[in-house]
C-alpha cells in the first residue's frame, strides 16, 4: 500500500492513493487504537462525525471484530429544524452507516424531539460529563470547520461544551455539494455542535478528509496559521491526531 506521510508540528498526515485505501488505512489504525484503550479501560467513549466523507472509513471499521459492547457512541453535531425522519439528519446518517449495525454499549444522539436547542445543549453536556470522549472520528469542512465550529463561531478556548451556532454560507453550500440537499435554501441555518475543547481533550483523533473540494482546507490545516480562520489547524497541537487524505484532498500539498 503506497502511502506517503507528512508531519507538521504534532499532526501526522497520511496521503493515500484513493478514498477506499484512505478509509481502510484509517480504520485499521482506529481498530488498533480502540483495542489498546480497552486494555486500559473497561469502557470507552467515541465521538463520530456524520458526512459522506466518512463512508469508506465507517464501512471498513465495521469489518473489525471489536468489543463494541464496551463502547459508548456519541455524535458531534446536528441540524436544528429538520424532521425526525429526514435523511439529512446526522443522527439518521450514523444510524444507517454504523450505529444500527453494531452492538454498542449505548448510543447518544445529539437531539431531543420537541426540545429547545438550549435544552438539547444542556442535556448533551450531561452526557459528556458521564462519557468524556476518548476517541474522535471526524472530518474537515471546506471552510476548515471541525464539527459545526465554522470560522466565525470557533473558539479554541470555548467555555461551552455544546452550543447553538449559525452556519456560514460556505458550510451550508458544502451540504449541497455533498448531495445532501438539493439547494442552499433547504439547508438549515442553525445547528448544535460539540465545541473544539471537548474534541481536543480526546486521547486520539482520527481526521478523515477525502475529495478535491477539501484540498484548500487540508492545505490550510497543515500549513496555515493555527487560527480559527481554519479551525482544523488546532489539530497540529494535539499529541495524537492523524489526518487521512486521498490524492484529491492532498492535491495542493508538496509531496
Write a structural description:
With 255 residues, the protein is α/β, with parallel strands linked by helices. The chain has one domain (4-245): 3-Layer(aba) Sandwich (Rossmann fold), CATH 3.40.50. It has helices at residues 19-40, 55-61, 90-97, 117-130, 169-177, 196-200, 215-223; strands at 4-8, 11-15, 44-48, 71-75, 77-79, 106-108, 135-138, 162-166, 190-194, 204-209, 241-245. The strands form two sheets. The protein has an eight-stranded mixed sheet, with helices on both faces. A three-stranded antiparallel sheet has the order 5-9-8. Helix 7 links the parallel strand 10 and strand 11 (241-245). The longest helix is centred in the N-terminal third of the chain and has 22 residues, at 19-40. The model has no long low-confidence stretch (mean pLDDT 95).
Coarse morphology: globular
Tell me the distance between the termini: 16 Å
Major β-sheet profile? 8 strands, mixed
- Strand content bin: 15-25%
CA-atom Rg in angstroms: 17 Å
How many DSSP H or I helices?
A: 7
> Which structural class should the secondary elements be placed in?
alpha/beta
CATH architecture: 3-Layer(aba) Sandwich
Query: Count of DSSP E strands?
Result: 11
Query: Runs with pLDDT <50, length 5+?
Result: none
